[in-house]
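Write out this protein's structure.
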Amino acid sequence: MNSISFGQTFNSLASALAQPEKVVVLNLSGKNISALPQAFSQFTKLQTLILNDNEISEFPPQILSCTNLKVLQLTGNKIKQLPKEIAVLQNLEELEIGFNELSVLPEEITAIKKLSKLNLTHNSFSSLPESFAQLSQLTILDLSYNLFAALPNAVLQLPNLKTLDVTYNKELKLNNIKAGNLPMLKLLQLKGTAISDSETLKLNYVIPDCLLVF
């Protein structure tokens, strides 16, 4: 297997396991991976893990030992469920789990207080945990291509959210948004939703500093 490493960045599991103490960034995208070895727990300094476009159907528990992780990308797999133990990843800032088979987020995910970017695109979500508003550092949220009929109230209470993508939630309406909701929002992407002209006028009034994109 060919491998390339630049300092602390690796794109081969074999080369990374040979120098586990040096691994900070590990990119294993598109390698037909379905599971991770137990030796993964050796990556104590790992901060960025990219496992996009693989064959993973269950969230690899070995990831939970990488408590210094800041970025975790699992886009384009077959994951059906996230474990409640994901809360141990207290340093996580970016989580990308689009293009999977998810429909529920564990309540415990809201314990990851540093999370600033969450990508849930192309799954089957229709709701989020009530405690979702506790993700007070969240600035970017992608809910596109899901099954939301209304925007969860917990999302409306996010104090620092700047970018929200709800495109192609085909039944989505936004009649529950009120003045004071989403005070920092700058970009709201709405293409492919069921939002009416009257709702659009209301949005322009209640979030006047936000760019609406249809």
